[in-house]
């Protein structure tokens, strides 16, 4: 009952405008809030958002390698390095 009253129903208009990870997080938190507990829902939401962020950052990294005649292989990393990715 509390979830029904506190949920921002106008946010459903944004379904086609927000990233799929955020849509999944909203659905997950809402479902866990109704079925279990708000504290657990917040925990699951934070974990889902962190995993989504790590996935998004890991897809933006590009690495190239070169092997000069000296024999040492050199790697060049382009993008944001994140400890989770």
Relevant terms:
85 residues; mainly alpha; two-stranded antiparallel ribbon; elongated
Give a brief description.
With 85 residues, the chain is mainly alpha-helical. It contains 3 helices and 2 strands.
Write up what this structure looks like.
The structure is a single chain. The protein has 85 residues and is mostly helical. The chain has 3 helices and 2 strands, in the order H-H-H-E-E. The protein has helices at residues 2-6, 20-35, 38-58; strands at residues 62-66, 74-78. A two-stranded antiparallel sheet has the order 1-2. Helix 2 (20-35) runs antiparallel to helix 3. The mean pLDDT is 83.
Shape: elongated
Strand line-up across the major sheet: 1-2
Kindly state the mean pLDDT as a whole number?
83
Structural class: mainly alpha
Number of helices: 3
Helices and strands, in order, run as HHHEE
Number of strands: 2
The N- and C-terminal alpha carbons lie at a distance of 39 Å
- Which bin fits the share of residues in helices? 40-55%
Percent of residues in beta strands? 5-15%
Tell me the Rg in angstroms: 20 Å
Give start-end ranges of low-pLDDT stretches.
Answer: none
Biggest β-sheet description: 2 strands, antiparallel
What's the arrangement of secondary structure elements?
Elements: H1 2-6, H2 20-35, H3 38-58, E1 62-66, E2 74-78
Antiparallel strand pairs: 1-2
């Amino acid at each position: 009952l509390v979830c029904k009253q506190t949920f921002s129903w106008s946010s459903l208009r944004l379904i086609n405008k927000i990233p799929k990870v955020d849509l999944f997080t909203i659905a997950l938190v809402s479902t866990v809030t109704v079925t279990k507990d708000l504290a657990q829902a917040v925990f699951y939401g934070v974990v889902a958002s962190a995993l989504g962020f790590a996935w998004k950052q890991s897809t933006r990294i590009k690495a190239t390698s070169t092997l000069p005649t000296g024999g040492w292989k050199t790697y060049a990393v382009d993008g944001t390095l994140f400890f989770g990715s």
